[in-house]
Amino acid sequence: MSFLHTLQQIIADRKEHPVPESYTASLFAAGEDEIIKKIGEEAMEVILAAKGQGNERVISETADLLYHVLVMLADRNLSLIQVESELENRHR
Fold first, then answer.
1. Is the pTM of this model over 0.90?
2. Which entry of 43, 55, 64, 74 is 20 to 30 Å from 34 by CA?
């Protein structure tokens, strides 16, 4: 299992068992609009990083984007496995 799958499980746990000091739990509490807003912000930061901020920054911002996408999927009761399946179907 990749760490993305482990992270997905951690995020799902935060959704089911919110911890007051958890950033993930605060995103779920803020709701879908805030989660989607964060995805937009992080996507823009990936673009800016790719346009001259170096590979380290690209990696960091891409990690932030992937995390927020996993939160959005969990909020919608969707899974990374479903996304992977879609990618596999497109590859065929």
1. yes
2. 55
- Alpha carbon distance 11, 7 (integer Å): 6
pLDDT tens for residues 16-65? 999 989 999 999 999 999 999 999 999 999 999 999 999 999 999 999 99
Q: What is the domain class of 3-91 according to CATH? A: mainly alpha
Q: Give CA–CA dist 65/57, Å, rounded.
A: 12
Cα–Cα separations (whole angstroms), residue 16 to 34, 51, 75: 18, 38, 11
The ranges assigned to domains in the chain are 3-91
Helix 32-50, helix 23-30: angle, nearest 10: 120
